[in-house]
């Protein structure tokens, strides 16, 4: 697995332009906008997406087929992708979170520590959910087909949420109260809950990814 990490970090070194775009966008957002919770989430998701680029490079010109002729198992490959996504996302999340807190203070914008912690926790949940969906899709369908599958999945998700809200309203269920209850949770409880949720999502996603990759032929 060490060799896989070295390969992926080597691929990231060749994406200096992507990193430059992230830095520029972060600076622009921090100086032009006041919604720091959105900024933290957006930049974190962009950093997390880098994991998918390494899979695309592996699949280029049947590179993945060659990779599995080496002493690398499919289980190791899938596990490395999830560990790599965490290793690359967490430092980026930490950097943009600290930067946002410093900039909000320097600009005199109200951004309490509680809101900041909640924004960081929610951002990590979002990137976990997105990667847990995208990694299995890309391993099953490949880079091109996974985009189409993702669009269909997002469409189904949006429709499901919309219908769920309508059903709650028709049934007299106040779904906004549940959201407000989550928002009022203490940071420590929110962090513990999000950690458990992220862990469960990652495990399910990992098992799906492993199954998809074991069934693929190269």
UniProtKB/TrEMBL annotation:
<keyword id="KW-0812">Transmembrane</keyword>
<keyword id="KW-0472">Membrane</keyword>
<feature type="transmembrane region" description="Helical">
    <location>
        <begin position="116"/>
        <end position="136"/>
    </location>
</feature>
<protein>
    <recommendedName>
        <fullName>ABC-2 transporter permease</fullName>
    </recommendedName>
</protein>
<feature type="transmembrane region" description="Helical">
    <location>
        <begin position="82"/>
        <end position="104"/>
    </location>
</feature>
<keyword id="KW-1133">Transmembrane helix</keyword>
<feature type="transmembrane region" description="Helical">
    <location>
        <begin position="148"/>
        <end position="165"/>
    </location>
</feature>
<feature type="transmembrane region" description="Helical">
    <location>
        <begin position="190"/>
        <end position="213"/>
    </location>
</feature>
<dbReference type="Pfam" id="PF13346">
    <property type="entry name" value="ABC2_membrane_5"/>
</dbReference>
<dbReference type="InterPro" id="IPR025699">
    <property type="entry name" value="ABC2_memb-like"/>
</dbReference>
<feature type="transmembrane region" description="Helical">
    <location>
        <begin position="20"/>
        <end position="45"/>
    </location>
</feature>
